[in-house]
Fold these 4 entries.
Entry 1:
Amino acid sequence: MDWRKRGSVTGIKDQGNKGRKGGLMIVAYDLLLQNNGGGITTETNYPYEEAQKVCKTEQPAGVTISDRKFVPPNKSSLLKAVVNQPIFVGIAAKGKRLGEIV
């Protein structure tokens, strides 16, 4: 299932290493749910720019997220999750195990 083909998500953006550390993606989703009613704007309304800037927070929501769940770290669970909705995946790219996951 490729959610990009349905227009539900955009392609991967290379954000480089700009001080992001593991776990911040979870914090971002929690803040989104708590402070923005789960609303996320679209790429059309707010295109990604590779630059250090202050985010424009007043954008119309294109989709609403109601919750987040952890998926067990195995292929079967990941496939079951991705069939139902777009998902985000965080990978701790540390050590030799990364090659085993991909």
Entry 2:
Amino acid sequence: MFLRPPLHKWVSLFRKHENYLRVQWGSNTAIGDITEAAGWKILNCSPDVLTQDIRLVCMGETSMCQHLFSGHGAVDTIVRLSEDCGKGPFARVQKSWIPADQSMPADIAARIVRRDGSQPQVQALTLDTNFTAVDSSKLDKLNFLLGFLSSEPCD
């Protein structure tokens, strides 16, 4: 049987450590992804706040990004964020709307002209980390895994 020392002693045994949060499993309509890997380009986002309004645009065909709006819609979806957006890896969509400001940087606009010559519609989301505010009647269970990784034992 392995006996783990108290957490404060455990942490002091290591010089380098990393905390992480990962969505472990859950309903496919409860979890979304607004990173470039999922086809989205975030036009404005602060890495230093937990609650903020962002604008984003789908970089591919519309069907590529529809997952965010499927099921119950974007509101109350837990979304994965890019590393330079928000203080954590996940946020809750508090509000979703089409902003009046449909502008985007020229370099991004040049990369996403659709086959018919049109530009995709810019979307807007209010993000927060108030996960307890999710309307659970709309969603199935969602599970998070909190972890702590360490390396380099002290001498």
Entry 3:
Amino acid sequence: MRDLIVTSSVMPKPNMQKPIEKIVAEERALAILRLMSGDLGGATNDRVLTRCLEFYGLPTTQSELRTQLNGLECAGVIKLEKIEGLLIARICRQGVEVAKGMSSADGIAECGPECPY
């Protein structure tokens, strides 16, 4: 029997996220905003966020989380400040609106009525 070799004519770009990774990243971004606008009172640090995201089944490394938080700051939904080795995130008005489903932003899942976060 001959082995069948399947190749793809479309090679992903090096920085292009895989579809599942993109979905998880968008859900993680929404969970961050929902946590910050609710139980965490508008501000938190990256260590607390890491533990909260694990609780919701969205585990991440500190490096991945910090990259994602930087992206959320670029999107204008949070502000970041570094204090004694911790990255402090504060939600902005735009972030609260996205968390409540009143507006949307690129890279963040939309908040529906059945949002589990």
Entry 4:
Amino acid sequence: MAKASSTCFSTKHPLQTPNDIIPPTKMKKIDCDITERGKEQSRQAGRTLIELLTSSQRKIDFLMISPLRRALQTATHLLEAFPENHNFVVEISNLCTEILLDSCDIGTEPRALTEEFPQWDLKFEDILVAWWLGPRNDLDTNATEEVQRNRGRS
């Protein structure tokens, strides 16, 4: 029996609002938005990803997104290139986040994300209220286990 192969694509959010204006060390904004240019960069990344998947005859099985606003906005615009009836699981996970260094790394509470991103139909309530502070010991898991558990949901 042939072994199934997997490919992992990773993307980082494009330009966020303060990065266009002030150096990151002077930021004061919490959970920043991406810029208009960042939205177009995300759309282009989606089109490029579709081309890559088509030419390599690969598909996406699972998409994990950080609950940071800029990551959700990036994914929203990136996925515009995909059909609405895509066949992959989308999961919001605080395993995908940044080191808490500046105010822009402070996230938004899950309830507010649910209101801001209703199109996602995702379970933000599965995320800790202050998820950006890192996992609690009783909820800590590694990314591989998280991905395997979520794949079982599809």
